[in-house]
Specification:
With 154 residues, the protein is α/β, with parallel strands linked by helices. It has a single domain (2-149), classed as Collagenase (Catalytic Domain), CATH 3.40.390.30. The chain contains 5 helices and 4 strands; from the N terminus they run E-H-E-H-E-E-H-H-H. A 4-stranded mixed β-sheet has the order 1-2-4-3. It is globular and about 40 Å long. The two termini are 28 Å apart.
Amino acid sequence: MELIFSEESLDQLKIDDLEELMIKAATIACEGEDLDPEFVEVSVTFVEPEEIRELNAQYRDKDAVTDVLSFPQFDDWDDLTEDGEIVLGDVVICMERAAEQAEEFGHSLEREVLYLFVHSIYHLLGYDHMEEDDKREMREKEESVMTELGLTRE
């Protein structure tokens, strides 16, 4: 599993072992979907509220700050090749929004950032939460990964 961070992203976070936890989370999710994490690559960027608002407006026609955005590389899993790396896509997390939500939900910033990342990974893997059954399935997968990481709801 390879995570590619923008240059300044990890340095400004102040969460110990975040990269290691993200790699572990993405590995668990990929293995659960029968993807060999050794060949999987994901780009991760942490942004300010204005930047994520602009991305949300541009790509989702929602002119509002959000917590995380996912940009899958593939629209159809049939496009995946058997040779070489699988670039799943991009994860964009708004740290300010994550911090607000961590406080609102009464848990650590670490847990919130990891949850947003796991949520985004499942979007990159083709899951969504538009229908109630799909939402339930996605939430179960997310919580399973969070439990394995030892970051359950407090």
